[in-house]
Amino acid sequence: MPTNPIPEPSRPPAPGHFGPYGGSFVSETLIEPLNALIESYDKLKVDPAFRAELDADLANYVGRPTPLYFAARLTREYGGARIFLKREDLNHTGAHKVNNTVGQAMLANRMGKTRIIAETGAGQHGVATATVAARLGLKCVVYMGEEDIARQSPNVFRMRLLGAEVVPVTSGSRTLKDAMNEALRDWVANVDDTFYIIGTVAGPHPYPTMVRDFQSVIGREARAQILEQTGALPDAVVACVGGGSNAIGIFHPFIDDPVRLIGVEAAGHGLETGRHSAPLTAGRSGVLHGNRTYLMQDDNGQILPTHSISAGLDYPGVGPEHAWLKDTGRAEYVSATDAEAMQGFHTLTRVEGIIPALESSHAIAHAGKLARELGPEASIIVNLSGRGDKDINTVAEREGIEL
Amino acid sequence: MNRLDATFDQLKRDRRKALVPYVTAGDPAGDDTVALLHALVEAGADVLELGVPFSDPMADGPTVALACERALAKGLRLIDVLQIVGRFRERDTQTPIVLMGYLNPIESMGYSRFAKAAAAAGVDGVLIVDLTPEEAPDVTPDLREAGLAPIFLAAPNTQEPRMRAIAQEAAGYLYYVSLKGVTGSNRLDTDEVAKRVRQLKAHISLPILVGFGIRDADTAAIVADTADGVVIGSALIQALVDRGERPAVDVARNFLAPIRAAMDAGAQTSGNAA
Fold it and tell me: What value of ipTM does the predicted structure carry?
C-alpha cells in the first residue's frame, strides 16, 4: 500500500480546514451556493433571534435537554468505571440527527429556499429531514441507495408518510455514499431553489463546521450535567463514529478539558477481513464528497465497499475534524465488531431497559472494556445516539428469529 | 511550445473552432481505446479529453457514471490510462490529450509522481473536476513543473472576482460548464451561453471551450460561433453504448464528422460576414 500522500499545507489554513483535512473539493457550479451558505450561516449563527428560535425548537419540538442518566446496573454488569448515558435516543424521531436538521432547515427557510434534499443510509437522517421539512412546509426529496431501501423499509414508509419523495439510487454500490453522490448531482442541477441538508460532519466547507455547531448542544448539556451530578468532569467520553456527527457533537465542548475522547468505528466482520467501516483505524487520507479525510480506498484511490451491521456507520469516509483529532492525538479511535456491538445491544437492553440503536451499541461495547480498564473510581459518558426500534428486524434476522 | 497552445494558435490562424470529444478510458472499447482515439482525430477532433474512471463521479450524469463503472469493472487503473496515452503517442505526436477526472486517484498516486508519469506518457493537460482554484496550490505546481496545463472549470454562476482567481491558476484552455447540472444534461440555453462566454473573455485570455449538454451538430455550431470550441462527451458515449454490432471506431467517426462539418460551415459563414 502506498504511503499517505498528505500534502503539507503550503499556505495559512483557510476556514473549513482542519490541518490538511476538510476543505472544499467540489465542481465549480457548487462554489456559489456554498459561498451563499457560508455567508448566511456566519451571519445567522451570531444572530440572537435565530439562536432564540433554534433554542425554542430544540426545547419544545425536539425535547431537549436530553437526560444524562447514571446507568447503575450497566456499571455493575461491566464491573468498573461509573457509566453515564447521554440520552439522545429520547429526542423526537429517536436520534441525535434532528439536532442538525432543525438548524439547517431553519437556515434554509431564512435563505428563501423552498426545496430540501438529503441523503440517507439507515433512514434516520432522512426521517429527521422529512420531519422538519413537513413542519416548515418545504418540499423534501431524500436520496437512498436501493440496497438500503430494501434493508430499511419502515423508515422509507415513515419518510413517505411525512410527505417526502424517496428516490432510489441505483448507481455504484447502491448505498449511502452513492446516495450522497446523487444528492450532490441534484444540488448542482437545482442550486437556485434547493438547500442540501447533509446529515453528518462531512462534505465541503461549511458543512463539517456547521453540523458540528448544531450537534455541540449534546456535549454542552452533557458537560454541565456531569458537573452537576458528580461535581467533576468525566475521565472519558465515548461515542460511535460513522460520519461522526454524534461523536463530534459530544466531544467538542470537552476539547479543552483533561478528558479522554474516544471514537468507536465499526469493525464489521473484523478489521482483518477487510469487511468493515473503519477508515480512521484502517484507511488512509484521500478526497471524497467535497473534503479531504481518512477513507476506505484501494491502492489506486478507488473507494472501497464497506460493511457494518448498523447501516448508519456503513460509510467509507469520516468527518475531516475527526481525521485531524486522530493525527494530533487529541482523540483516540478504536473499533468494535458486529458481534461486540450485538453484545452491547443485548446487555443494555436487558440490564437497563433501554434498547439502543446498533450504531450506539458499538459505543456501549467499547465502554464495557474501558470501564474495566479505568476501574470504579473513574466515570465515563457514553453518547447513546439513538434508539434501537429501527433495528429490531436486523437483530431478529441475525438471530434467526421470524417476527 | 506545448501541444495545447500550438493547436489553439493554429486553429486561430485557420479561423476554425476546436472540436473536443470526451471518452472514458477503457470504455466502451477496452484495450481499443487507443484505436478509438485515433478514429476521433481522423473524424476531426482537435483535442482529446480522456476520462479517468473514478468510483464516485459526483459531477457526472448517468452516461459518464456508468462508463466509469464499466471501466472500473474491467480493472482499469490510473496507470493503465497513462499507458493508453503512451500507446496513442506512438502514432500521433500532434493531437493534445487532456485527462479529465477526480482528485483522489491522482492524490493516491502522489501529485509529483503522477505529473511526471503523465508528462512522460504524452499527456498535455489535466482537468480535475473537484479541484477548485482555492485548493489548487497544493496540486498545480507539480503539474506545471512537469509541463502539464492545469485546466479549470467556470460555471454559469461563477462570480466575476472568481473568474480572475481561476484565470490565475488555469492554463491551456478554460472549460465553461454551459449549464447548472451534471454532464449529459439536456436543456442548454445557447443565448445565455454566448453572453457568458463574452463575459469570460473580458477576464481570461485563454481559449474558452464549452461543454456539458452539447449533444448535436446544430448546438455545437451555434455555441462554437462565440466560444473557441466545444466539448462533447455524454452524447458520444451514448452513441458508442448503443452501437450494437458496429465497430466502435466507425460509430465514433460517424458521430463526429457531421459535427465537424457543421462547425466548419458556421465558421465559414461568420468568416464571410466579418
Answer: 0.94
